[in-house]
Structures are given as structure tokens and as C-alpha cells.
Design brief:
The chain is mainly beta. It contains one helix and eleven strands; from the N terminus they run βββαββββββββ.
Length: 114
């Protein structure tokens, strides 16, 4: 049973923007803090951003001022708006839902060309 489905990845030039979406099952979304992680080639997975059920956000230093996480509780969806993208943002981005247990999406590829 699919719980988290990401979309919105793709290829973009440096300086461009993308918006990632993650649609969650209603049963897990409402009580979960939502987040985005990423895994770049040859690097460890890192936290990108999180948002609590109350809307409090947290960002990795590397994306502060460029990325914005938000959630639409009516649509059970979390978003990651990514602006001023850099080649080092190239990675597979994963959505997470942290509630009763930690759920992971299947990942979506983001590639930023220089």
C-alpha cells in the first residue's frame, strides 16, 4: 500500500526553480511531521527541511533562503519549493512522514545542470 507519492522532480538549469510535491495517505498525514531528505551521488543522505503539524519549519543550512517547505492539510500534501538551484542540489529527494512510525516515499530525481 503506497503511503507517500512524490512528484515534481526533473532537470533544471542552475538558478532555476522546481517545486516538489508529496501526496500522503490521510491516515498518516494529519498526525505527522513531514520532511524532505536527499541523497546525492557519493554522499550520505541529508535532511533538507521539515515541517511540524503546527507549521514550524526547519532547514539545512545549505538550503536556507532558497528552499521553502509547506503543507496543505486539506490536500494531505507537503511541498518543497526550490529556488536558485545549484548543481550541488542534484540528488534524489525523498519525502518523509514522521508520526506513529517513519514513512518514506520512493524518491524523485532532481538534476541541476551548470
Amino acid at each position: 500500500q503506497v503511503q507517500l507519492v512524490e512528484s515534481g522532480g526533473g532537470l533544471v538549469e542552475a538558478g532555476g526553480s522546481l517545486r516538489l510535491s508529496c501526496a500522503a495517505s490521510r491516515s498518516i498525514f494529519s498526525g505527522s511531521a513531514m520532511g524532505w531528505f536527499r541523497t546525492a551521488p557519493g554522499k550520505q543522505r541529508e535532511l533538507v527541511a521539515t515541517i511540524t503539524t503546527g507549521g514550524r519549519t526547519n532547514y539545512a543550512d545549505s538550503v536556507k533562503g532558497r528552499f521553502a517547505i509547506s503543507r496543505d492539510n486539506a490536500k494531505n500534501t507537503v511541498y518543497l519549493q526550490m529556488n536558485s538551484l545549484k548543481p550541488e542540489d542534484t540528488a534524489v529527494y525523498y519525502c518523509t512522514a514522521d508520526g506513529v512510525r517513519l514513512y518514506w516515499g520512493q524518491g524523485t530525481q532532481v538534476t541541476v545542470s551548470s
